[in-house]
Amino acid sequence: MSTRATWSIVVIAIVCLVGGVALSRRIEPGLRVQTVTLAGDTPALHFIPAGAGRHPIALLAHGYSATKEYLFRYGEALAAAGFECYDVDQPGHGASPRPYSFMESVRTLETVAQDLGPVDVFLGNSMGGLTGGEAVREGGMKPKLFIALGSLPSLGEHGPPLVLLAGQFDEVFPPALLRARTDARLVLSPWSDHGLEGYDLQLVNAAVEAACAAVGKAPPAAPAWWCWRLAGIVIGLAGAAGLALCFPQLPRSWAWGRGLLVATVFIGAFVLTTRFWVDAMPHPRYFAAQAAAIATTFLLLLGAGRLRVPRWAFAAVITTLWLGVIAVTPVRSLVMSHLGVFSLVLCVVLLPALLIGALLGRIAAHRGSRFDGDLAMAIIVGCALFQWGRAPRTAFEPPSARVAVQLDKKFLDACIGDYEFAPNNLYWAPYKFRVWRQGDHLAGQAWTEIARQDAFDFYPESETNFFRRSAGGQLTFVKNAKGEVTDVIFHTAGMPDSEGKKLSQPSN
After folding, report:
1. Is the pLDDT confidence value at 323 over 80?
2. CATH dotted code for 29-222
3. Domain 409-502 carries which CATH code?
4. Residue 20: pLDDT band with limits 50, 70, 90
5. E strands of 65-180, at which residues?
6. What are 269-307's pLDDT values in tens digits?
7. Entry pTM
8. Which residues, in sequence order, are CB contacts of 261 under 8 Å at separation 6+?
9. Domain residues of the chain, as ranges?
């Protein structure tokens, strides 16, 4: 390629990059978006609609390992429909200074709802739907409408109307599980999965229509400026890729820097263009983990290079693994299975990182070497794993020392039997729990119709309280006036209690 042609491509790429960044920052006309702090220390995006006077309030809560930016499209669309919208960072996520636990998230939503005044519409995604559901069950939040996006909350006997929104390919809450709920209206999108539900046009419009109906408003025309943002992201990233493709060969002593330069330009363009839709800003607290992931990925790529394995083969392996997990649909619907979450991480985080990394690796190697391509791909994959696939920040509490006591066998035998647990916001499918005596203590095992959890031991602290030595937690057996055990309650730090009823006859 001639020098003149190269410079022409560079100019076009720079124009695309700058234009893409400008387009990616467009929002619906008349709306304003501010970053605010609610209830003392809860960061939130505040979507302010056009027009004066009081507007109905909508509160949004994201899912596990996400941030408030994930629900930007819903906040923007609801604000365009006349709602004053607040989209919060849950504890342990994004900019929130609080450590994560399920109940800490519940208390945060309750506090924010009280701080805002009456909340007309609540929209919770995935874990946000479950923590919001628990806040409703406890009475700390009383919206007129509850919208669950990729979630299956339990709102209690006197909860508000419930609308379920989900993708046909949701890995965590399969459609069969959603259709079983007879107390909700279900809207399924034919193309999205759990990770794409936050950007699904059909689901966004369904949320706006349901919210408007709940407050007696006519829904407006569907927002359109998100299309310009999406175009800006595509144009900006294409410009970054074109710019990287034109990088000249570096001097021999600096040749290793080509891969670093290509990855840096692309990551910079991604951060600049996606700021409204993902939390793309680098976080120093994750740098150590990202550096370890980059080094590990780089070593794997070097080994693959020696075996003449192409970079795209890694994406092919992960795709095959993901499709294999998708194929086991019944297992994915189980509360006690982690396959749904595992599939989500593969599809939403690792697979896109490998595909983009392989492309950038090819670009870096165009005027460089295999080493440059491997380094560029390793940086993309390593950064993505802990930028978007990170677990929330928690406060580690060492378990307190607990001492088992000796109980008469009659107290142990009184607890033996089968218990049935109804769905709640911790376990969204019904399950049963069998208890039997194991020498001087008890043992138990939970199961559903199609799968069983591993059995575990628990030891007595009193006639009714038992604890697990390995995983923590406590079981409390409830007795009636006759001294008969009627219920069991599971207590786990940071989680809501789960109560099961003792069955009169053993289950199969």
Report:
1. no
2. 3.40.50.1820
3. 2.40.128.50
4. very high
5. 84-88, 121-125, 145-149, 162-167
6. 999 999 898 887 777 878 888 999 999 999 999 999 999
7. 0.89
8. 244, 247
9. 29-222, 247-387, 409-502
